[in-house]
């Protein structure tokens, strides 16, 4: 029997659902310091890119492109950071982060620089609505 995919509890706690793509869950990181999306392939026990088959890796690349273009369209960041680290959460996931030259961590990586600033309920609804409206159909 094939194991079922489940979202890691830390990702569930730190992010909000945005969309279900062909391969991945697209989620919004709950940190209003940066426009920050997370893609999580719905593949049980995937920890590394090499745990995906060739078609899944190509699909992940296409979905990273969707997320990056979505942030560029909606938020118009100066720079996009794209990373799959997994040191704290081993489940395979990819961060797509919009960066500005005056953001709290610039030019360093965002991790560990400043405390996360959770979205207010109103900000969250507005950001999710804005991003969902701009998703390709």
TrEMBL record:
The keyword tRNA-binding does not apply. The lineage of its organism: Bacteria, Pseudomonadati, Pseudomonadota, Gammaproteobacteria, Lysobacterales. InterPro entries: HIT-like, HIT-like_sf, HIT_Hint. It holds the Pfam family HIT. GO terms for molecular function: hydrolase activity. It comes from the Bacteria. Keywords: Hydrolase. Residues 37-106 form the HIT domain. It comes from Luteimonas terrae. This is Diadenosine tetraphosphate (Ap4A) HIT family hydrolase.
């Amino acid at each position: 029997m094939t194991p079922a995919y489940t979202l890691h509890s830390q990702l569930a706690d730190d992010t909000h659902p945005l969309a279900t793509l062909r391969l991945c869950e697209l989620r919004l990181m709950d940190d209003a310091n940066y426009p920050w999306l997370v893609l999580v392939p719905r593949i049980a026990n995937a920890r590394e890119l090499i745990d995906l088959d060739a078609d899944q890796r190509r699909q992940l690349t296409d979905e990273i492109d969707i997320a990056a273009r979505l942030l560029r369209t909606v938020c118009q960041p100066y720079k996009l950071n794209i990373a799959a680290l997994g040191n704290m959460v081993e489940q395979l996931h990819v961060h797509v982060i919009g960066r500005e030259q005056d953001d709290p961590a610039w030019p360093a990586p965002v991790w560990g620089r400043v405390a996360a600033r959770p979205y207010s309920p109103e900000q969250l609804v507005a950001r999710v609505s804005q991003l969902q409206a701009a998703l390709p159909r």
